[in-house]
Specification:
Strand order of the largest sheet: 3-2-6-7-8-9-1-10
Helix content: 25-40%
Structural class: alpha+beta
Bound molecules: iron/sulfur cluster
Number of strands: 12
Oligomer: single chain
């Protein structure tokens, strides 16, 4: 039987404080004009009204993380030779992330197919992924930029979550989605949830009605390949882009990174940091050649990867969950939905003989 509990909004901070006794807890709150995920602080207001400006990506895949500490030293047997001793710096402890949205949390399933495969396991990603639980808030309202229902998801998609919280009058109905979620719902602060189930269902039905009908994107992988070499198409759709990279940094499914070594004397650290394919330097080769020399090439890669190449490699799954952040926060008004629909509708010009 599914475990359901009711949490009064007035008890939210106390519940998170209990969870914070044994875990690092992250929750959304305002910082300046943006809503970000930050370590839980009972003195700060928790923001639960809509999706945060920034997804909780960094809780599992930090913006910048130390992978290895290393030291250079001379080989005593051969003083002309330099040896390196390295030690992995693996993340420790357990984390609970409260307040992500279904599109945010499902985003990690994209990472899993790349970082946790039969051939390759990213030990840093795995250590955090295995030790992070998600208490996700289903969306009660959607914004004009939301399109999760276009890409096989929904405002209450439970994939990747441990607990799904549906906003109801005075609080949240909490449903355990995984065994780990059940262990998060043992607090005495939580009340019996069954009397609130019907109200929660009504909330979710209403939000689905408001989303309206989704277009069929099943042709996007093939259609984007058809326009692959049509640079006129890509120049038109990328004309407004200023290559700022905001779209990739805010995307819950973008997982590219760069590696740098920071060295002081004989000691150093290897650091992994987010990188972004909208930057001209991302594909710059040491020779100076750049296979993606213009913003048109780079936007083609970003859209093509999410709606064509990734689905081709991963059972047709589109690597965008329709959170709409790249649309909402793009300073130039580039809309990924328009580009995909234009590619699907694209008809090559027939040249009369
Ligand atoms: S956020 Fe907009 S302007 Fe910035 S790189 Fe992305 S598409 Fe271009
Ligand atoms: S591509 Fe845009 S809409 Fe899709 S998941 Fe990334 S930020 Fe969200």
């Amino acid at each position: 039987m599914t475990l359901v509990k009711y949490l009064k909004s007035t008890d939210l901070k106390s519940w998170l404080a209990e969870l914070a006794e044994k875990n690092s807890v992250f929750a959304p709150r305002y910082e300046g004009d943006s809503v970000i995920f930050a370590p839980f602080d009972p003195e700060q207001e928790i923001y639960t009204k809509s999706a945060a400006t920034v997804p909780p990506k960094k809780t599992v895949f930090p913006q910048s993380e130390k992978l290895v500490d290393f030291t250079y030293h001379k080989d005593p047997e051969n003083p002309g030779k330099t040896l390196i001793d390295g030690k992995e710096v693996l993340p420790q402890g357990t984390t609970v992330v409260f307040g992500g949205r279904p599109c945010d949390v499902r985003g990690f399933s994209m990472f899993d197919r790349v970082y946790l495969t039969k051939e390759t396991t990213d030990i840093y990603y795995k250590a955090r992924r295995d030790n992070t639980s998600f208490i996700t808030i289903a969306c009660e309202f959607t914004e004009s930029t939301c399109f999760c229902h276009w890409v096989g998801s929904s405002p209450s998609d439970p994939i990747g979550s441990d607990v799904l919280a549906v906003p109801v009058k005075g609080g949240f109905l909490l449903t355990a989605v995984s065994a780990r979620g059940e262990t998060l719902l043992t607090s005495k602060l939580l009340l019996e949830g069954k009397p609130k189930v019907e109200e929660a269902e009504e909330v979710l039905d209403k939000v689905m009605e408001n989303l309206g009908k989704a277009p069929d994107l099943s042709k996007s992988p093939g259609k984007l390949l058809e326009v692959f070499d049509n640079m006129e198409f890509w120049e038109k759709v990328s004309a407004k882009c200023i290559s700022c990279g905001t779209c990739t940094y805010l995307c819950p499914t973008c997982y590219c990174f760069n590696i740098t070594d920071e060295i002081q004397g004989l000691k150093g650290s290897r650091i992994r940091s987010w990188d972004n394919c909208m930057s001209a330097l991302f594909t710059m080769e040491a020779s100076g050649h750049n296979p993606r020399p213009t913003k048109a090439h780079r936007l083609k890669n970003r859209v093509g990867h999410k709606f064509s190449y990734y689905p081709d490699l991963h059972d047709g799954i589109i690597s965008c969950y329709g959170c709409g952040r790249c649309i909402k926060s793009c300073p130039a008004g580039v809309d990924i939905r328009e580009i995909v629909l234009k590619a699907i509708e694209f008809m090559p010009t027939v040249v009369e003989e």
